[in-house]
Every structure is written in structure tokens, then in C-alpha cells.
Design brief:
Blueprint (H helix, E strand, L loop, with lengths): L2 H13 L9 E5 L2 H11 L11 E4 L4 E5 L4 H10 L7 E10 L9 E10 L17 H13 L4 E9 L8 H9 L4 E3 L2 H10 L4 E9 L10 H29 L9
Parallel strand pairs: 1-3, 1-4, 4-8, 5-6, 6-7
Antiparallel strand pairs: 2-3, 4-7, 5-8
């Protein structure tokens, strides 16, 4: 079978939604409450419950998918979305802030992501950078400025290693490469999106500052972040995808 046949057949099995039922603009997340909030806001059904991923689509042509956690799932969802051929994809993820200038509740628009996860090696050599689509980030940046919201731009590091906060040598390495934040999906989403010709971006919410012991995420601190900032994070993503579609600005200016 051709890849196009495989992903078109698989996308409903993974997400509960078939390729032709998706909107042109896709939000990605690792959190089920984002999908539930999206569905509640627009009065739509959540598909895929009980399966590996869930999804929902509104009447404005915007869809959301909870693809789970980690770079392998990130690669899978971007491969599956090649059957949809969306006009743009935005990842609403959380990350650890690694600089003094990145506080909990800040937003990061990554200008690039270092490929520390390894999954991207199955798609491109290490020399190929993991980068977002400029036009999508330009639009989100303008939206954040218009709403007087503080955000940072810079390079983030993507790792497969979830538990590293105890490792002083790894933390020294993160300081040495001067990255702004750390997560488990962004580099993979950027790179596999590039491989599939999908325009992509990421708006990351700083949910912890793990370079210090008191800044390591706990169940209690994560609940506090969710209560205070998740609604805003999702609202920005929904507004960005809906407005960029209405304005009709061309995102892709060349053919891969």
C-alpha cells in the first residue's frame, strides 16, 4: 500500500474522525481537557473516546486533536494529518522554562527546536533543522501583541526523556546550549510536518521551571497552572486558527 492509502485508512481508527470530516485548520494538544473545553464551547461531539486519540471539529472549519504525549505520537499524528492536507496546524503544548526570563504562565513561540528526541532521525538527517512556518507564528505573534500578552521567542529543546530533573549533568548541558524551554513534542511536530508539507506552529505555555528543585512540576502545581492559564491558552489557539482562516492569508508560498 502507498503511504497516502495507509494514513487515510488509519486516521479514523486513531482519532475517531475520518480525513474528510476534519477542518482546514487543526489544533493539536496532549491534554484531554483542551478537547473537552473546545467541544463544550462549540457544542460539538468529541470523537475517539476510548481510543488512542480524541478529536472534535466546529462549524468554522477548526478541528482539535489530543494526540497524547511524546515524540512518537507527535510523528504519528503529523503523518496521519497528511491525509487531511490541512492549511495549518498549531500545537498548544506545555513546556518547562529554562531561563530566568521564562516564568510560569508565559507563552513561548519557538523559532526552532533542537532535535534531542531521536524520532526525527527516521525522517531527515540531523543537519535538517526543526522549524515552524513563519506565517503562522507571525499571525499568532500579532494576536498576542494585540491582546497585550507577554511572550518569548527562542529555541526550545525536545527530548524523549521525561524524568531528567534529578540529572545535574543534563541540566548543565541545557544551560550550555542556551535553550529557552524544554518539551517532548515540538521538534518532532515541526520536522514531520515539514516532511509532509504541512504548515505548522507551536504556542507553548510555560508550566514549570524545572532547573531548580522548587520549580519541578508536581500534581498540585500542574492543577494551579491548568486553573489559571489553560483557558487563555486554548482561547488564543482557537482565535488564531479561526481568524487566520477568515483573513485568507496565504501560508504556503512554495512547493516542497
Amino acid at each position: 500500500m502507498q503511504k497516502s492509502e495507509i494514513v487515510k485508512d488509519w486516521i479514523k481508527r486513531y482519532t475517531g474522525t475520518s480525513a474528510d470530516e476534519y477542518g482546514d485548520w487543526i489544533l493539536l494538544t496532549n491534554f484531554q481537557n483542551y478537547v473537552e473545553k473546545f467541544a463544550e464551547k462549540y457544542g460539538v461531539v468529541v470523537n475517539g473516546k476510548g481510543g488512542p486519540m480524541t478529536s472534535a471539529t466546529n462549524d468554522s472549519g477548526v478541528s482539535i486533536i489530543n494526540f497524547g504525549i511524546g515524540s512518537a505520537n507527535a510523528a504519528t499524528v503529523m503523518d496521519l494529518l497528511s491525509s487531511v492536507k490541512p492549511k495549518g496546524v498549531l500545537f498548544l503544548g506545555k513546556c518547562g522554562g529554562l531561563k530566568h526570563s521564562t516564568e510560569i504562565g508565559h507563552f513561548i513561540l519557538p523559532s526552532a527546536a533542537i532535535r534531542g528526541e531521536g524520532t526525527g532521525d527516521d525522517y531527515f538527517p540531523k543537519e535538517v533543522p526543526a522549524m515552524p512556518s513563519f506565517k503562522i507564528h507571525k499571525h499568532i505573534s500579532e494576536l498576542l501583541v494585540h491582546q497585550n500578552l507577554e511572550y518569548r521567542t527562542g529555541v526550545v529543546y525536545t527530548t524523549n526523556r521525561r524524568v531528567w530533573e534529578h540529572d545535574d549533568e543534563f541540566k548543565k548541558y541545557l544551560k550550555k546550549i542556551r535553550v529557552l524551554g524544554i518539551d517532548m513534542e515540538t521538534a518532532t511536530l515541526f520536522l514531520v510536518g515539514f516532511a509532509n508539507g504541512i504548515e505548522r506552529g507551536a504556542l507553548l505555555l510555560v508550566s514549570d521551571v524545572p532547573m531548580t528543585p522548587e520549580g519541578v512540576k508536581t500534581e498540585e502545581s500542574d492543577k494551579a497552572v491548568t486553573k489559571k492559564w489553560v483557558d487563555l491558552h486554548l482561547e488564543i489557539g482557537m482565535e488564531a486558527m479561526e481568524s487566520i482562516g477568515k483573513e485568507g492569508e496565504q501560508i504556503k508560498h512554495f512547493t516542497y
